[in-house]
Specification:
The protein has six helices and twelve strands. The protein is of the alpha+beta class and 333 residues long. It has three domains: 105 residues, Efflux pump adaptor protein, beta barrel domain (Elongation Factor Tu (Ef-tu), domain 3, Beta Barrel), CATH 2.40.30.170; 59 residues, RNA polymerase II/Efflux pump adaptor protein, barrel-sandwich hybrid domain (OB fold (Dihydrolipoamide Acetyltransferase, E2P), Beta Barrel), CATH 2.40.50; 117 residues. Helix 3 packs antiparallel against helix 4. The chain starts with a helix and ends with a strand.
Amino acid sequence: MEQKKKSYNLLTGIIALLVIIAVVALVGYIVSKPEPTVIQGQAEAVEYRVSGKVPGRIEKFFADEGDFVHKGDTLAEIDSPEIKAKLAQAAAVKSAAEAQKEKALKGARQEQIAAAYEVWQQALAGEEVMRKSYERTERLFAQKVVSEQKFDEVSAQYKAAKATCAAAKSQYDMAVNGARKEDREAAEALVDQASAALAEVESYMGELYLTAPSDGIVTARFPKEGELVGQGSPVMTVTDLSDTWFTFSIREDMLHGMKIGDELTVTVPALGDMQYRTRIKYMSVMQSFATWRATLDTGRYDARTFEVRSVPLEPVEGLLPGMTAIVVNPVLE
């Protein structure tokens, strides 16, 4: 009887030992079993930086952070006294150039034309008198009545009268015809130059009002009203939520044949358990200084990290930039 009891205790101990060994082995297997690799990324969207071409002071904002705006909506107004002064200066230069052009095209005033005509008529009368005197002196000289010196003096006076009359006629013609062709062309060129300068300044005036480049949400507003902003300095950020994608950083040994055009199923924890179909549109190696993986970690080679972008095949309602995204296929071991 005692022998049977000892055998029973021994058998019980062996069974208990085997059970313990089995439990330990099972726990060790569970603990040591590698967990499925999780590919995690985030949602991103197109962002537009709104900035101006001219420096100035923020006069007023027309949209706050979080507001939805449409393309072309006025977002902010910049006050720039320098541009306004340049506009007035350019307008004054154009007015002066147009006046100069008008003068060149119209020619002299009627009073100047009348005065030139009177001078010409006076010179014409003087020429007629000297012509008659010259003809009379010429006949007398032929008859040996007057000396050769007298004839030369009258001849010289007649030539001078003819030259004076011709000069007066030229002055009158110039007054009637106006400025020369070259002067008119130069005046027109000055007007064109002044008009171009004015148009340039007017285009800067349009830059004093910053508008939305696209439909979207105002996600950032950098300066405050009254603060100075430089040329090209960002004033606001508008995010277009209709153009979103998911970005993942994946080690190259986990790509497993991924290529552009492949579909990925993605979940967004912030939006619940819904799964969204996406398509890979971009793959590129990331900068090496931050993406190398040491050989000791992989046991084989240094692995690079690739940036993979996938675009939802259908709009994802409620998706915002920065939300976490997880790939649920393929499952990588």
